[in-house]
Amino acid sequence: MSTVRTLLMDADDTLWENNIYYERVIGEFVAALAERGIAPHRVHQTLWETERRNVTITGYGSNAFCQSLREVAQQLGVGGLEPQIRQWEDFIVHHPIELMPGVRETLPRLHACNRLILFSKGNPEEQLGKLRRSGLAPYFHATEIVFEKTVETYRWIMASYGLLPSATWMIGNSPRSDINPAKAVGLRTVFIPYHATWQHEIEEINPNGIETVMLENFAQLGDYFTRR
């Protein structure tokens, strides 16, 4: 078991913007269906139900999301959107990476005195592509992309890297994926709220176990983990 302090770090909406691009596409999708007479609230509800059902099968990422758009359009009787859906998927995959405030300055400081492991979920090719484009890859000692973050996957990464719970922290913006399952296996956790977290990721932080550290932004990690 390693006694080196290890920081497991989420990627989307922790290191870089992600959900805002999906929200933009959803807005355009809703507008396109509204032009065809479908009420926006009906589109939003149908899409939410479809995504919630599909995510357990298709996982996360642009392809899975756009497949849900296709299903919603079909379910609501709207055709002719395939060219636009392909454009939306291309936009999500290839948009410029916009780092969260403080990431570029803080990550080198954290790298200097901690072991950093990028621990993200989603499509591996898509996530690794964002990591390459971000320029942040050299600061991570390892990268793990999983289908879903659950208690089982946290146990797996602990066993794979020989991590001690007392020396390991999970840092992220999602209570559902980053905080609660990590706490369930005894890890320490840091929650950095995001202004537009996907509703699928929102839940109350479990008050049991070691108290979760709440920070306002990524930059605060620099002082927190270099003075300890």
Polypeptide structure, described:
The chain contains nine helices and six strands, in the order βαααααβαβαβαββα. By secondary structure, it is of the alpha/beta class. A six-stranded parallel sheet has the order 3-2-1-4-5-6, sandwiched between helices. Helix 2 packs across helix 3, helix 3 packs antiparallel against helix 4 and helix 5 runs parallel beside helix 9. The mean pLDDT is 93.
| Run of helices and strands | EHHHHHEHEHEHEEH
- Approximate shape: elongated
The assigned CATH architecture of the largest domain is 3-Layer(aba) Sandwich
Q: How many alpha or pi helices? A: 9
Q: What is the name of the CATH superfamily of the largest domain?
A: HAD superfamily/HAD-like
Rg to the nearest angstrom? 19 Å
In the CATH scheme, the class of the largest domain would be: Alpha Beta
- Spans of at least 5 consecutive residues with low confidence: none
